[in-house]
Amino acid sequence: MRFDAAWIEDLLEDAPGFDELAAKLTACGFNVEVREPDGDSEIWDVDVTTNRPDAMNHRGLAREAAVATNAGLTPLEVHLDEDPEPASNLISVEIEAPELCSRYVARVVRRVHMAESPGWLKRRLERCGIRPINAIVDATNYVLMELGQPLHAFDLNCVRGRRIVVRRAQSGEKLTTLDGEERQLDPSILVIADAEHSLALAGIMGGADSEIGPETVDVLIESASFDALTIRRGARKLGMHTEASHRFERGADPEMAPLAADVAVALIAQLTGGTVCSGRIDVNPRPWQPTTLELDPAKLSAFAGMDIGRDEAVRIFHDLGFQPHDAGGLIQVSVPSWRVDIERVQDLYEEVIRHVGYDAVPAVLPVLPAVPGERRGHWPLIDRARDAAVSAGLVEIVTYSFISPEQDDASSVLPLVTAGPVCLDNPLSRTQAVMRRSLLPGLVSAARLNLNQGETDLAFFEEGRVFTLENGQPAEHERLGVLLAGRTGAWDQRRPVSFADLKGTVEAIAGRTGFDTLRWRRDAAGCLDEAEGAVLEDGGGTIVGYAGLLVPEKVAAPDLRQAVYVAELDLDRAATTLPLPRFRELPRFPAITADMTVEHPEALAYADLEAAVRDLASPLVERIELVVRYSGKGLPPGTVRTTLRLVYRHRERSLTQDEVNAEQETLRTRLGTALHVRFA
After folding, report:
1. Is 87:279 a contact under the CB 8 Å cutoff?
2. What's the CA gap between 526 and 532, in Å, rounded?
3. Mean pLDDT score, 263-282
4. SS3 breakdown of the chain: % helix, strand, coil, rounded to 5?
5. Which residues contact 240 (CB under 8 A, 6 or more apart)?
6. What is the DSSP string of 38-89?
């Protein structure tokens, strides 16, 4: 913001030079960024943060300079000669929206003679970037620049019914503002109206119908306190930004309205020869209530890391207008009306420290006790799942949690999606309008991107959260997604990825993550190939995931140019903690392996076949492995030959081949009876 350095100096007693003023203001938080000489003064561009509307005027900045330089702030004196005629005989004020206007002060100046402002006033306004217009308008702008209180001057004879009403605009109401633009209004905008129609946009800009002009004789001065949020929203909706709205949006001093009105009418009377009607019309439906805070000097010193004397803190508070008092060892302060940014004790710490000087605060790191960290909640499970996926040879990816409505519709058929979507009220774009209910859309998008870049061999995973709407409230769930595509195997034995590769990867991850033994049941799962798709169930029959060959058309990704295998596990179903590993004595006797080829209907899932073999086999069977599954030439349609390798071992002695052969024959007999299968 632009300030007149000489103006600030005039408000100080025993003021130092411009150089020291600029340096001290910068040190206490008001960076004087540019200094431009202008005659006997300088034009300063000062960085005033949005939370400090009290310093967006010369008296407010001078108050800070007075504390920083130990100079005195000159008192504000108003010399006002009033005419016996009361202002209440000429105008009345009514506030219909007290929640949007907490105070409205009106004063009247009669029999003014329009003239230009004197040179000193013009120069001060021009240094602040304001164009002089006439003595009356310039007087209101002068008060704005000195005290920070926006004012507005109406031609009293243009106020119909001699009545001011502060109300919401009516639907479809229009107002031509001082810039000549016709504004379309609605009830979200606060207006100042007379008995018939609106006169001004409250806190933003006046209307052309009541503008001060050459024919103006009687002037009505408005000084009010408006709701900051209402002014901000109204100015943005109308595409306007004014000196008044800039301050009201950030919080003007609610107690400044009557004093600013007095200063303004006194100056107008001096410049135009007018007479000030006696008395203010002051409507105050929501009086300001001061806030009291208590500060412990010992805690202040501990916070700053240095000793700050109690007397120094009291001096700073006193000079800033906080009215400090002793309260049994504490410093009790009453927050002044112009400091709308002070809400808690920590804000008081900042006030003292910035005037003591940030440079005085020692640059020493605090001593903190160090204790071992601990991963809580889902994090041990998440870490375990990531480690398992990396150990399985996968690379981790991270995708957006926001997806398009089309991707969400495609996800709705997945077996793990059992609740509604969480839709964003204000999405950044339509492609990110819904929170994901599955990791599959992100996996597919990553696969598409890699394939389009020529990367055809893919093996990656994502661990992340999905979001659903359950009982009207958003809920989060941990998931792990896997995607395989292209080729796999050693560099000299590359082969296409198959369902068996996906199954082995998923089982390796599930085993290390904490799932019970998974049961694979053939199922298209909403997005998979019917022949190479499965849902995963735990021991209780609950679906904990799905895996298989992706059908691109089912997930709104028809442009995938090669076979892609995907899987998704519900980590919420995994064990929170894993049992401690138990030592088992290493075998002392050799094992004997025996293969068995079972010819069975294709409808018999491998999981069912393996479960039956495990149930019916001898206790000597230590492990069952899949060797190969074959279907095609030489077999009837719908028939499969599955070769299993059984590992036999006795813990107390060596087995003989005859014993293993006998166990194999017994197993064939039991399987033939139970499953009605044949053996090759």
Report:
1. yes
2. 12
3. 96
4. 30, 30, 40
5. 177, 201, 204, 205
6. ETTEEEEEEE--TT-GGGSSHHHHHHHHHHHHTPEEPP------EEEEEGGG
Domains in the chain, start-ordered, CATH in brackets? Answer: 2-73 (3.30.56.10), 82-283 (3.50.40.10), 291-357 (3.30.56.10), 379-573 (3.30.930.10), 592-679 (3.30.70.380)
**Which are the contacts of 170, defined by CB distance < 8 A and separation ≥ 6?**
185, 187
For helices 257-272 and 135-147, angle between their N-to-C axes, nearest 10 degrees: 140
Alpha-carbon distance 139 to 134, whole Å?
8
Distances from the Cα of 113 to the Cαs of 85, 106, 489, in angstroms?
A: 19, 20, 97
Are 581 and 475 contacting, i.e. CB atoms less than 8 angstroms apart? Answer: no
In the predicted model, is pLDDT for residue 300 greater than 90? yes
**Could you tell me the maximum CA-CA distance found in the chain, to the nearest angstrom?**
130
Q: What is the mean pLDDT of residues 333-342?
A: 94
pLDDT above 80: residue 366: no
Contact between 337 and 256 (Cβ < 8 Å): yes
Q: Which residue shows structure tokens 């300001």?
A: 288
Nearest to 664 by CA among 588, 586, 597: 597
pLDDT higher than threshold 80 for residue 49:
yes
Report yes or no: 278 and 88 within 8 Å, Cβ to Cβ: no
The residue type found at 88 is: S
Which residue do the tokens 């890391």 mark? 305
pLDDT at 516 over 80: no
- Average pLDDT over every residue of 570-592: 85
Tokens of 546: 């799905």
325 burial class (0-12, 13-18, 19+ CB within 10 angstroms)?
A: middle
The answer to whether the CB of 311 falls within 8 A of the CB of 304 is no
For the entire predicted model, the pTM comes to 0.60
From the CA atom positions of the chain, what is the Rg in Å? Answer: 41
